[in-house]
Amino acid sequence: MDHGHSHAHGPVEGREGKLAATLALVLVWMAVEALGGWFSGSLALLADAGHMLSDAAALGITLFAVRMARWPASAQHTYGFHRAEILAAFLNASALLLLSLGILYEAWERIWLPTPLAGPMVVGVATVGLLVNLLSLKLLGHHHADDLNLRSAWLHVASDALGSVAAILAGLSAWTLGWTWVDPAASALIALLVLRSGWQLLDESLAVLMERAPARVDVGRLRERLLAQQGVEGVHDLHVWSLSSGLIAMSGHVVTAQQSPELLCALRELLRSEFGIGHVTLQLEPAACSEPELHP
Prior knowledge:
The protein has helices at residues 13-40, 43-68, 83-112, 119-140, 148-176, 182-209, 219-227, 261-275; strands spanning 2-4, 232-244, 247-256, 279-285. It is α+β, with helices and mostly antiparallel strands.
């Protein structure tokens, strides 16, 4: 049996500093937007403040999870705490969905019962809010595609930026044209966009928690490539899953008469180079000792 480990993780200290700075920005501006929405009567501003409240929670969870993921493995937590980041992503995605549904409900009520808006105040507060959100996005950076936890935080802030744009449009419409319906309509549109992003993030985080094979790994092709190697007679009990974002693990039984370290090394290199799997556990066994594949 062989265990191949390759735990390559990017620097997290920089991420922590950016997350902390973004959290401070969000907390300050959340209070300002909540007050602005309350006094101006703008649902778009209140929705944006609600987004920022969820952002603050999301960023706090993300920051804690990034630090927790660095805790060393223990006798009881043999894989370490990498899954903390996925749990944070799942919680953040759930919050996005609930928040979006709440805004849709409120927008529906506002469309039928329009509320007067203080247009100039809405435009002023929302414009500064947009600048704060853009600065937050810049702090978080663009390297979030393969990190579900960081992407969940980025989506929260990006949805706030969209909310600020919606509030600006709503304020201008009420100020210049008297169109109060733009405020709930814009809020509903933004909520639908956030709902879509939140659902996708929820699905991806659930896939990791349920140990579904990563989308970028074709398990059928992986099995075929193993069987194509010289000396391999069969493959069974093949499992591929994600420990965390970008950290893929695989285990399997390889039936072979060739009990050699050379074959193990060749199989490990195949899995690393073609499928990007760095944590590999393979058991080589002769056909006489092979057991049928187990299906719980």
